[in-house]
Amino acid sequence: YKAHELFPWDFAAGSLIVEEAGGEACTMENTPLTFFQPQSIFASNKRLKQKHFEGLK
Which terminus in the chain has less CB density within 10 A, N or C? Predict the structure, then answer.
């Protein structure tokens, strides 16, 4: 799942659900999410996340 310029209240609960299910959520730059400003996010299972960011290099 990719989404751009979301406010923290748009992704906080969803990122927790993804992480509790064994997935990962991060910024589009592959850095940890912060909940103090709008940001673009990427959330998926760990294998797909790794392949996604390897493909961008």
Answer: C
Q: What is the pTM of this model?
A: 0.83
> pLDDT digit string (tens) for 20-38?
999 999 999 999 999 999 9
Rounded to the nearest 5 degrees, what angle is found at the Cα of 5, between the Cα atoms of 2 and 7?
105
Average pLDDT of the segment spanning 36-52: 94
Strand 24-27 with 39-44, pairing: antiparallel
What token pair was written down for 2? 């990719």
Q: Which domains are assigned to the chain?
A: 2-55 (3.40.190.80)
- Distance, CA of 38 to CA of 21 (rounded, Å): 24
